[in-house]
Amino acid sequence: MGATHIVSTVGSLPQPPEQLTMSLGWERLYTGACLMAFLAMSANAFRLWRAQRDTIPLLLIAGGALCVFLEPMVDVLGLCWYPRGSSFEIFELLGRPIPFLVLPGYTFFMGGLTVIALHRLEVVGPKGLLQLYPVMILLELPFEILAVRTEVYVYYGQQPLRIIDFPVWWLFVNTMVPVIAAVLLRAMRPWLVGPVALIVIPFLPAVDAGVNAALAWPTWTVLNSDVPTAVTQLAGLLTCGMAVGALVLLVRALEGRLGPAAAAGTTTPDSEREAALR
């Protein structure tokens, strides 16, 4: 007797548009834009290190670079594809070719924006994250629009919430990674001294993976299932709502736990934190 299925929604998995080829001209332009953003974020991290003798910003830049190894995972689940034929492909994993442009892109976004989010949290307080979140969305949006319009990478399948071919639910998930990382690092600050601080480098990819899984799972599920368009759109809205809801709850929790003065405390240099722990 065959197995009885109460609910069956999973069909054949959507296949990437492997017939596309990378436009080398657009790839170079996009890579240049990512490199400029990377240099700006790296300069900001170096400036904070010089001013505060704080190694965390530099370690976050390195952690952002390490996040590139998570790109194939989110691409498979979220149905994103980099066309083959890149002038410089750095690796391939899970059947996904990853071009060089992803490295400076991830480094500036995951690493550089986490530096800014942590600094805002420490200087302005939790409300600084509320102010920063839409700014990060607006920063990411032109990069995404440029990429999908020039097919440097594409989103395929029945993506929800498409605007100019870009599914905007990605914005809400991606920008929560620096926010969550900043909140966790703020709590861990007193112990991130000496060699222990090196844990920040693998910590950031772990947060990247966790945030994507926590917020994107409704959309990932419908993208890889045979469900009506209305359900797909609702899943996209749910993902966006979960991201915004998590942000608001985090800010309220931080304000309640730390209080206004403690929440907006200044950064303590590494040397002072080490002395406090002795």
Structural class: mainly alpha
Strand ordering within the main sheet? 1-4
Q: How many structural domains? A: 1
- What gyration radius follows from the Cα positions, in whole Å? 20 Å
Number of DSSP helical runs: 10
Distance between the termini: 69 Å
Summarize the biggest pleated sheet.
Answer: 2 strands, antiparallel
Strand content: 5-15%
Q: How many β-strand stretches? A: 6
Percentage of residues assigned to helices: 55-70%
Task: Estimate the mean pLDDT confidence.
Answer: 90
Order of helices and strands: HHHEEEHHEEEHHHHH
Low-confidence stretches: 1-10, 273-278
**Shape from CA axes?**
globular
Polypeptide structure, described:
Helix 4 packs antiparallel against helix 5 (127-150). The chain contains ten helices and six strands. The chain has helices at residues 24-52, 56-66, 71-78, 102-123, 127-150, 169-174, 176-188, 200-223, 229-263, 270-277; strands at residues 80-81, 89-93, 96-99, 154-155, 162-163, 166-167. The protein has one domain (24-270). The strands form three sheets. It has a two-stranded antiparallel sheet with strand order 1-4. It is mainly alpha-helical and 278 residues long. It starts with 23 loop residues before the first helix and ends with a helix. Strand 2 and strand 3 form a beta hairpin. The longest helix has 35 residues, at 229-263.
